[in-house]
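Human: I would love a firmer grasp of how sequence relates to backbone shape in proteins. Take your time, and here it is.
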Amino acid sequence: MTGPNKSAPAKTPPTDAYSLILEAIDMGDFRPGDRLVESDLAERFGVSRTPIREALQRLETQSLLTRDGRSLIVASLDHNQRAELYVVRAELEGLAASLAARHATPEEVAVLRGMVEQDRALIGDPARMARANRRFHKQIHLASHNRFLVQQLGLVHRSMALMATTSLAAEGRGEVAIAEHDAIVTAIEAGDAGTAHDALKAHISKAFVTRLRLEAGEVKSTL
């Protein structure tokens, strides 16, 4: 008889309607401009329409969805909104890195180091790298040991789901991003709050520059 753990997934999928829809937006299953219909979502996720309706209302309140007549569609960000989002993200992420350098436990630092080494194998696969990148940044947020900062970064990263593409799709960006992650973790390992702050802030800035160059057609996308 096969043991129960052998077929268990590595990560328990979200079960509430809000998390299911948010993850679908984050993974690019629903893209900016896509229309979300209660009945279709209920069938897709196998839940009743009431929690779907409540989830859609919550996502609209958070500005992740917007109205197009009577329909709800996935919101999009214009150039100025993207720039504003990156400014806030860079400042908050930098703060998280500096706090992680001060407060991260040895175990948390070991997890971050392991992520950097494991993610090298994902270079050339932008979709998987994007998922790994989110896990890496989330781990730094948690290592800051500041619940209010984690909450604010959660809001920022939910808005990041509205980006139509990942900067990691740019040719050569994967290798550079991993090197930047390595430098961030090295600073956190050393307890160097200033260097960790500057390294992560620069990492976010470079990601934004890469995204702008992708949109301008200056660099090739591997997607």
User: Anything to note?
Assistant: Residues 1-14 have pLDDT under 50 and may be disordered. Residues 142 and 174 are 24 Å apart (CA to CA). The first strand starts at residue 35 and ends at 36.
